[in-house]
Amino acid sequence: MKVTKHIEKIKILAHYTNYKGRLFMKTLCDLLIDAAETQTKIYGVDVETLNAKGITWMLHRLHIQLYKVPYKGEEVDIATWPSGVDRLFALRDYQMLRKNGELLVGATTEWMMIDLNKRRPIRQPADVVEISMTHDIENLHIASILDEKDFELGEPGGSRNFTATFDNIDFNGHVTQSSYMGWIINSLPFEFLKGHILHEIEVVYAHEIMPDSSIHSAYRIEEKENNIVVYHQITSEDGARTHCVAKSIWQK
């Protein structure tokens, strides 16, 4: 089967958007994952099929560039495709476009294949490697802005606490990747979010969060030339475990 871009047509519904009518970041993440899930079913590497083999997908890295954010009522296309294999990671790219072809969002992701019993990564199976490497679709090649090995939050500028409730849990029995995004964004003050537009964010997921866990989402804000750079970290409530780190770029 020849690998092609999978395209889904989406209408931005009212409950997808904030009080200004702009698409929520958490919802954007959900829409991207929904499109990917549909394509993995086409190629037989979806979660349900993998679970029967004792394995599953887990997201390691998510990098999103926002050129423009769609508004309530807009109809857009979401395109996604497998974009390669790098060590233990299967790569997947995404685009969100207006009907006229204008690019709104570009995103790239790194996925691990996990042994469900050991909760450890395994090598990508041969069928995933073939799907990811044997097509001629051009990859996005979004340059990373975050090196988790060198990440230092420093003295936090602020934080909020959250709890992993029932609606945060996914098919793997842990917190969804979009819930992390929601906690990252919602840790920031309302006045900051009201007065700034997000242009880019990269998240590295380190440890899964289980149901009923209490977490701490902290941030530090720096002004760099024309941009506002924010460093984020989600940890366990006691700070003993880092669940994810992130870096975001905003403009006033």
Please characterize this protein's 3D structure.
This protein is an alpha+beta fold and 252 residues long. The protein has helices at residues 25-42, 47-51, 126-133, 177-186, 190-195; strands at residues 6-11, 55-66, 75-86, 89-98, 103-115, 120-122, 158-163, 197-205, 214-224, 227-236, 242-251. A hairpin with a 2-residue loop joins strand 9 (214-224) and strand 10 (227-236). The longest helix has 18 residues, at 25-42.
Structural class, by secondary structure, is: alpha+beta
The N- and C-terminal alpha carbons lie at a distance of: 46 Å
SSE order: EHHEEEEEHEHHEEEE
| Overall body shape | globular
Instruction: Indicate the low-confidence ranges by residue numbers.
Output: none
User: What percent of residues adopt helix (DSSP H or I)?
Assistant: 10-25%
Strands, total number: 11
Radius of gyration: 18 Å
Put simply, the count of helices is: 5
Overall mean pLDDT score? Answer: 95
